[in-house]
Amino acid sequence: MDKHYLTPLFQPETIAVFVGKHKNRENLSPVAQHLLDNLTTQRFAGNLVFLDIETTGTLADLAQTRADLAIIALPEDQAIDALEVAGRIKCKAAMVIGHGTSAETAARMHKVAKRHGMQLVGPNSLGMQRPRLGLNASVTGQLSAPGSLALVSQSGALTSSMLDWAHQNNVGFSTVISLGPNTAIRIAQVLDFLATDAQTHSIVVYLEGISNSRAFMSALRAAASVKPVVVLKSGRRPAGNEAAQTHSGAIVGSDDVFDAALRRAGAVRVDSFVQLFSAAKCLAARYRPVGKRLSIITNGGGPGVLAADWANEIGLQMGKLSEQNQQALKAELPPLASLSDLVDLSEDATGEHYRKAIDTVGHQSDIDGMLAIYSPKAGTEPHEVAEAIAEVARKSGKPLLCCWMGDATVGQAREVLGKAQIPSFRTPEAAVGAFGNIASFYQNQLLLQQTPPPLSQLETPDIEGARLIIENVLSERRKVLTEMESKALLSAFHVPVTQTILARTPNEAMMIATQLGYPVALKIDSPDISHKSDVNGVALNVMNATSVRDVYQAMIENVKRLEPNARINGITIQKMVRSRRGRELYIGLKTDDPFGPVIAFGTGGTMIELINDQAMELPPLNQYLARQLMDRSRASETLGDWRGAPAVDREAVEKVLLRVSEMVCELPQLREMDINPIIVDDQGAVAVDARIVIDQTPASAHDYGHLAILPYPARYEQTWPMRGGGEYTIRPIHPDDAQMLQDLVASLSPESRYFRFVSAMTELPPVMLSKLTLIDYDSEMALVAVHKDRQPGGTETERIIGVSRYITNPDKTSCEFSLVVADDFSGKGIGSRLMLSIMEEARDKGLDEIDGLVLANNPGMLKLMRSLGFEVKPFPEDPDFKLVTHPL
């Protein structure tokens, strides 16, 4: 239980190899020959045992063999037999290497592996490398150099290309794994292991498809919370869907949603193979920018300006020297040097000038990274400049990238930079792009930290009323809500809407318009017409009763002529929104496969598809996420003081976004939605038109299962009386608890700390602290007991006095728990309450059993477990522990 379940795969001590009769090499398949060569070229740190399924012998002989991992490179039928043998010798993991295996045969292999409790990579995998073990269990090429970068790929060809590039660029790997189609172990499980792998400091992923978005997002968020993750995904599809019934459904493409998902997971997406290589260079150098301010140091104005232009294009900021540093550095540089914007050292720059400039820039706190550009000049040696930069780079704590332009004369210089592990690029744009991709990791980490609850702190919505509206529409076997029904649904969540009344005759229309007051807007009401303007179904600024009558009749005739089969309920009348300088925006929803609902925001109006301005975010939202969503759209540039119009009420727009997020969380039947336009000015925001598409509740909707990111589970927050007086609150953990959790660990006695962590550490390492506080509330849950201490002066401070936690086991039916209580609160019933609460949450998740390991010399915990009904039994793998279990 203290080891990850994929440890036998990635850290095997003994490997059983099934390639056939390995001593008769000429009879092996090409794949088996290649695998055999790669396995035996270097010395593996463990043991290799070669087995042949056709060998003679007895089961008793076979029973003497034990292995952690089985590697199989055999034809399909023989591979299945080899899996059976691997199961009998108690292998915990297996890898089937090859290609062309059908989905049906793969399913048979998965079934065999599952029956024996083996974790299976493949079939159709090209294998795996673990360089520090001397393990090249792959057919992707020679063993790569050891390093801190992990490569996870769904493409064998890309894996081979990446390794070939890495050999030429001095990039090493901790892990390389090529999964291929129809594999049993998915990318999510590999990411879960790499997140805790001490050898891995950063991760590169090549992705072709996702089978389970919740598992993928859970694993990606966990990995990205502790290590930089860069993703390249193939299959960018054109945005839009011809079958969409709303603007949002038409313009929000699945690739846009994938971008939003990666941002929210804290990962970085690159768009090309070249950018993936560039990001890998930076990650291999273990660079961690904390912002977007890049200083450019160059000996040529042209390349420097190109770099600055591209930095501006991709949203980076130019890092400029302070006046004080400019004056101090100016005296050390050639006379023609310019420091006002770029640090242009002039053509006379030497290695010493670069060294002084980089040292000065590196010590300025408001600069996040540096790019040194060198163009070959007469009288200077490129390798000498590179050596000077390599020397100063060792002392700098900031990311430093280089661009050595040219080819023939700078080869030696690039070798110097490579040996110093300084990322080097051939063009200024590539270098700036690489910094931009890695710098965005920091920004995405802020998004990752956001874990909003499903409902905001705004006025409580009428959720039951909204559900009744949806149930009535579905009972009529309709999926498209009328404008009035859509606005009623928005009103249930307190979204401001214009008053809308349906008229079924011209006379009704005149009376309603007269009561509302002129001017009015008339709109066709039909469940079969998605875009009213396309059929002349909208009339604005109608000024009197006669015009209302005439427009009503003309509109009905036009619609019947253009859409003869459309059902027409009538025409809605609403008073025109008077806002001389209001901005037209849209807020929408689309349901994506596989990521579920996504909220879109941008410029609204009738030309919404043509303008194609959409930013998007996965729900749930909080105020920070809503603001970020608005800022990413082009519409945000018009929301301030603009051409004489006052700035709009941005807070009103934020509230609408939060309300839409509440709707998405609480109403899993929503499929598409348009609020278009929503008119916003300095007085507020109002939804003028709305269209909502619904469907039956998806099977996954239980407890927000329709969302890719679970909201903060505020429903588990409860206040309990404390034995001996006082009270405390039990609630789910969140990222802001990191310091309080660290304080709890620091306050524990050495004995309590050892009982919990089986370690003498006095504080949690940053990576572990992040992993314990930033969880997905799906595969893992942690509840904290919080006590408020009253300080002199009447102020209160919060303190975590206990934590219970579970992590779902690989079987997805049971979980492993842990528990710790502050020493000065022991004996007050907190441990019992934390355990009962975490068991209740696990039961809600549908788990069947909870278990854990307790040190045999921890009588207090064992007594608590027995009092709660846990069964205490020996732990076969280690006599120092007891295994405690309880059915849920």
Quick recap of the structure?
The chain is α/β, with parallel strands linked by helices.
| Number of E-type strands | 36
Strand-residue proportion: 15-25%
State mean pLDDT (0 to 100 scale): 87
> Major sheet, described briefly?
8 strands, mixed
| Structural class assignment | alpha/beta
Query: How do the strands of the widest beta sheet line up side by side?
Result: 29-30-31-32-33-34-36-35
Our count of helices gives 29
**How big is the Rg?**
32 Å
Show the helix and strand layout.
Blueprint: H1 7-10, E1 14-18, H2 30-40, E2 47-50, H3 59-63, E3 69-72, H4 76-88, E4 93-97, H5 103-115, E5 119-125, E6 127-130, E7 135-138, E8 146-153, H6 156-168, E9 173-178, H7 187-196, E10 202-207, H8 213-224, E11 229-233, H9 247-251, H10 254-265, E12 268-270, H11 273-284, E13 293-298, H12 301-313, E14 317-318, H13 323-330, E15 343-344, H14 351-362, E16 369-374, H15 382-393, E17 400-404, H16 411-419, E18 424-425, H17 428-448, H18 463-475, H19 483-492, E19 500-503, H20 506-516, E20 520-525, E21 538-542, H21 545-562, E22 570-575, E23 583-592, E24 596-603, H22 608-611, E25 615-617, H23 623-631, H24 650-666, E26 670-681, E27 684-687, E28 690-694, E29 718-721, E30 727-732, H25 738-747, H26 750-757, H27 766-773, E31 780-790, E32 796-808, E33 814-821, H28 830-844, E34 849-855, H29 859-867, E35 871-874, E36 881-887
Parallel strand pairs: 1-2, 1-3, 3-4, 4-5, 8-9, 8-10, 10-11, 11-12, 13-14, 13-15, 13-16, 16-17, 17-18, 33-34
Antiparallel strand pairs: 6-7, 6-9, 19-22, 20-21, 20-22, 23-24, 23-26, 24-25, 26-27, 26-28, 29-30, 30-31, 31-32, 32-33, 34-36, 35-36
Helix pairs in contact: 4-5, 7-8, 8-10, 10-17, 11-17, 12-17, 14-15, 15-16, 18-19, 20-21, 23-24
